[in-house]
Amino acid sequence: MTIQIILLTKLGKEQVARIQKFPNTCPCFLSREDPKELRESLIALENGAHITHLLIGLEQAAKPVVRQLLKRPDIAARIGLVVIDECYLVS
Which pTM was predicted? Predict the structure, then answer.
């Protein structure tokens, strides 16, 4: 699984659309726009859903519940790459 931190929701949605064009991909975008969708996506990830690309808004990546979930050994073992888009903004 690749984790990509995205700063703008529009860019995240565009990235998901691009990734979906490749065979055998299952991207998931966690944004602040829909709390119910965020909750459902976290539950799916926790339950072992096949997610190849996890795109996360900066605010969601900083949430303790998300950070704790990604640190779980069973989930951390699935992470192959972490990408921070616009990394010059991270201090």
Answer: 0.79
